[in-house]
């Protein structure tokens, strides 16, 4: 792959950054994407410092799983790149910055997006049996995705009811996102993955005429070679690429204002709790419905019920003692 230093000023250039020891590289993990883009785009690799000059000559800049921190000068260059009409695609992975030891959230938070240090898990293992390979059948938050891809040819009323099921995608080894305005959530974990109904893909588009576009996905593996052709992952990448490179692609304004997402809930540390020995509390027996059963009159009482048994035992004991005495006298 050619490097960004060898590029000429072209409007159809896509650059994959490799200056931060990215966990996902173009030559090893995104060969399917490279084949798709090479038909009409020039795909290059940036192995030098991120500067204004290098960013100004690419249409789309991709950062996929950085494992090193960015400098303040690099952040300023990327921010200026977005302000002047550039497009940026950021791909992360499970556990976010805690695993990748980067500081990309410092940049993303300025646009209303943050990658959480968690992992998306499927609660029921269907079709893909690894819990981190989450198949999400109802995670589309904006019906504009289906409209752009022409996935659905149904009436507007039907689209209102089923746009969340328009696409199903495989979300492997990914993290959830926190999204706030001016960013917009596009995809969520749906109702079958944990955390429930939390964003996993978000976009930001500048309101200024010359502003750029940002897209953030919590799973870089989603578009890697082993997973991009599974389910509708390729269609989602196709939409994101069109949204980042074509100004005519828009989202549904109603869904953008009120996406169907829920509050982020955290669960206790199950591994830590399992190592602590805890005593269990026994539940009390159910109370009887009959009030008379509350009192047991047979616990303390004085009667003659045991007199016959006592006399019988006495007779047996007396006979045994007498027989022993007679036996002693006979032996003498």
From TrEMBL:
Domain IFT52 GIFT residues, every copy: 13-257
Assigned GO CC terms: centriole; cilium; intraciliary transport particle B
GO-annotated biological processes: cilium assembly; intraciliary transport
One Pfam short name: IFT52_central
Coiled coil: none
InterPro entries assigned: IFT52, IFT52_central, IFT52_GIFT
Domain IFT52 central residue range list: 273-314
PANTHER family with a match to the protein in the record: INTRAFLAGELLAR TRANSPORT PROTEIN 52 HOMOLOG, NGD5/OSM-6/IFT52
Protein name: Intraflagellar transport protein 52, variant 2
Taxonomic source organism: Schistosoma haematobium (Blood fluke)
Lineage, broadest ranks: Eukaryota, Metazoa, Spiralia, Lophotrochozoa, Platyhelminthes
The gene coding this protein: IFT52_1
């Amino acid at each position: 792959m050619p490097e960004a230093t060898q590029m000429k000023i072209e409007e159809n250039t896509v650059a994959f950054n490799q200056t931060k020891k990215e966990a996902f590289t173009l030559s090893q993990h995104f060969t399917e994407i490279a084949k798709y883009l090479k038909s009409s785009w020039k795909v290059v690799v940036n192995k030098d410092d991120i500067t204004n000059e290098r960013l100004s000559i690419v249409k789309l800049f991709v950062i996929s799983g950085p494992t090193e921190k960015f400098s303040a000068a690099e952040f300023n260059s990327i921010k200026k790149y977005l302000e002047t009409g550039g497009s940026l695609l950021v791909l992360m992975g499970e556990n976010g910055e805690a695993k990748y030891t980067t500081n990309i959230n410092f940049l993303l938070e300025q646009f209303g997006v943050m990658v959480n240090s968690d992992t998306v898990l499927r609660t029921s293992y269907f079709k893909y049996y690894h819990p981190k390979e989450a198949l999400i059948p109802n995670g589309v938050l904006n019906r504009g995705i289906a409209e752009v891809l022409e996935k659905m040819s149904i009436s507007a009323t039907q689209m209102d009811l089923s746009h969340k099921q328009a696409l199903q995608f495989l979300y492997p080894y990914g993290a959830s996102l926190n999204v706030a305005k001016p960013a917009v959530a596009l995809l969520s974990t749906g109702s079958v993955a944990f955390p429930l109904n939390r964003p996993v893909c978000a976009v930001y588009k500048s309101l200024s005429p010359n502003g750029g576009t940002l897209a953030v996905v919590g799973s870089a593996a989603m578009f890697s070679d082993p997973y991009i052709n599974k389910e509708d992952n390729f269609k989602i990448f196709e939409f994101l690429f069109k949204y980042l490179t074509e100004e005519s692609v828009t989202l549904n304004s109603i869904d953008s204002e009120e996406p169907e997402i829920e509050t982020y809930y955290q669960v206790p540390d199950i591994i830590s709790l399992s190592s602590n020995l805890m005593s269990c509390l026994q539940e009390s027996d159910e109370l009887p419905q009959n009030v008379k059963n509350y009192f047991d009159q047979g616990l303390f009482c004085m009667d003659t019920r045991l007199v016959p048994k006592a006399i019988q035992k006495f007779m047996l004991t007396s006979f045994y003692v007498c027989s022993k005495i007679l036996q002693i006298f006979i032996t003498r």
